[in-house]
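On clarity, I found the account of how folds are encoded harder to follow than it need be. What matters is that the chain and its backbone geometry are given together, residue for residue. I therefore recommend that a typical entry be quoted early in the introduction. An entry of this sort, consisting of the sequence and the corresponding backbone structure tokens, reads as follows:
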Amino acid sequence: MFTLPRLAALAVALSVFTAAASAKVEREVVKSFQVLPGVHLRVITSGGDIHVTQSKDAVVRIVAKEHIRAGSEADADELLKKLDLKIENEGNDVLASASYESSIGFHFGSWPPVQVDFEVSVPADASANLKTSGGNVVVGDISGSLKAHTSGGDVRLGVIGGEIDASTSGGNVDLTEGRGLVHLSTSGGNVSVERIVGTAVLKTSGGDIKIDSVAGTLDAETSGGDVKAGFLGALKGDCSLSTSGGEVRAVVGKDTAFHLDAATSGGDVEAAGFTITIDSGGMGKSNLSGNVNGGGPRLRLRSSGGNIKLSGR
């Protein structure tokens, strides 16, 4: 049985531990590498953010920001002994990684006690492979290919010239412009894109999908939100917008030629202002299929729980 004095002592000990655990020591490690055109960057960290920006020279500059939960500089030094931090280059490949020595047993507070954020500047023609288990991934404009994954944060991308494969298990995905093949996915957030030039596959299990301007081909699918897309000019190929729990809205040029294939289980299909040769269904019904302006690539619109609206620009 705990007596009052023992309870008081335990409370004091816990308060001291909590204060020590909440204290932070900040350290920085900075390295730079002269590189050739087409450098490839790889960054891996546990729980930290990754931020990549474009530099104006042929140099990769890496800043590793260490956030150490320690009550003193001496304690921080001890904790850093178990941190494996690598910042190195081999040929035209640059690696920045941070991992903490695994430990078995119960831990007070979050683990690991050292979190490392990476801030990197790269030449415009760089490609990158970025991975973090719990932070955000932010990338500016680069012309190379990009792989980006986080298990618990957001992914925010600028203008990417090469192929994109980006995903998060718990946040949002935002892209300014994708010029190559684009794969974006999230298990619990929204997907937002300003402009698609190439081929794009966008998926979310729990949010909305919005694309302002589609100049390529698009396959967008959500299990729990709305899908909205604006198509610029002629459809470059078959496209699909689908949701299991929301509305689908597509904006297409009034003179664009395509084949409309729209159906919903829980609402109506609206397509006012278009010249449609109807194969099946009709305006205001649950399905509408037919050639628009003579026909062309297929525009597939599907919803299991909402309306479908096609409008012209």
